[in-house]
Design brief:
6 strands; binds glutathione; two-stranded antiparallel sheet; 4-stranded mixed sheet; Glutaredoxin
């Protein structure tokens, strides 16, 4: 299957671990020093993990310091490709035709999956990091001096709580929807799908009294959650069979999704055309006809009514 990773145990989907995990740092003597215009981000608007890095770059106003190139959402057996099209372009940095070339330039013996996001170093001409967790954190912390918008998405006093909730959300929801969608056995699917909704139910309650997950300001965890919520009704309900409820059926979660969507600079990072075409057209085992559904009819710009919920 041409999906995101993977061995399978009992019909269960297991995501490949990230391979390149070098750290860009402001520390003197760092092999990868923080510098404007040295690093370049290769992303897909379709991919939730890449989407997180796009969001953090935008929120901090790092666009001037870190370039970004978007791949074609349609991926065939050759993998992610750079082509001119609606919302995606050729690679202006290296002239690569395929993202695979970045992986092979970094490690000629690389045989793993070629995934987005990728943070490329234009100086050493190799991938520094291909983990969305690391890339987000480096942008949030190491690159903060270069940010044009001063924003702390990972406040020191909340780090433990953030890390804890991130882990639960990743296991049950961010990756949980994939475990449901890519399961090849009924039991594995059901296990994953029930957990998705247990977590959504828990979040619905949590967001009844708090505007964002940790109070009055959206932090890293909110954005990690957002990328899954924004794809949920458009893709995960149908394509991944997570159809117990839609986000639109959860009043608090749906309001919260609209609230986050309406934060300045976020809406342009959400490309439903790329999202829908990518999932429905590049998982032939799940959707062999490659037909892209017309819905849902949803207005994320409608009033969210959550301003009164403070901390
Ligand atoms: N763990 C990775 C996940 C990245 C990932 O799995 N990306 C998917 C797209 S959503 C991908 O590029 N898959 C390509 C493939 O498996 O061929 C991260 O931290 O960024």
């Amino acid at each position: 299957m041409s999906i995101g990773a993977h061995e399978r145990i009992d019909g269960e989907f297991v995501r490949q671990a990230d391979v390149f995990r070098e750290w860009i740092s402001a520390q003197p003597g760092s092999a990868y020093p923080v510098a404007a215009r040295r690093y370049h981000l290769y992303v897909s608007y379709a991919c939730p993990w890449a989407h997180r890095t796009i969001i953090v770059r935008a929120l901090l106003g790092l666009e001037h310091a870190i370039g970004m190139t978007v791949v074609d959402p349609i991926r065939d057996e050759r993998g992610w490709a750079f082509r001119d099209g609606d919302g995606h372009t050729r690679d202006p940095i290296n002239g690569f035709a395929f993202l695979r070339e970045a992986y092979l330039a970094t490690d000629p013996s690389y045989r793993g999956r070629v995934t987005v996001p990728v943070l490329w170093d234009t100086q050493t001409k190799r991938i520094v990091n291909n983990s969305d967790d690391d890339i987000m954190r480096m942008f949030e912390t190491e690159f903060r001096p270069l940010a044009t918008h001063d924003l702390d998405l990972y406040p020191a006093e909340q780090r433990e709580a953030i890390d804890r909730l991130n882990e639960l959300l990743y296991e049950t929801l961010n990756d949980g929807v994939y475990r449901a969608g890519f399961a090849t056995a009924q039991a594995a699917y059901e296990r994953a799908a029930w957990r998705v909704f247990e977590t959504l139910d828990m979040l619905e309650e949590r967001l009844a009294t708090r505007r964002y997950l940790f109070g009055g300001q959206a932090l890293e965890t909110d954005w990690r959650l957002f990328v899954t919520l924004v794809r949920f009704d458009a893709v995960y309900v149908g394509h991944f069979k997570c159809n117990l409820r839609r986000i639109a059926d959860y009043p608090n979660l749906f309001g919260y999704l609209r609230d986050l969507y309406q934060i300045p600079k976020i809406a342009p990072t959400v490309n439903f055309d790329h999202i829908k075409r990518h999932y429905y057209m590049t998982h032939p085992d799940i959707n062999p006809t490659r037909i892209v559904p017309i819905g849902p009819a949803q207005d994320l710009t409608a009033p969210h009514g959550r301003e009164h919920l403070g901390a």
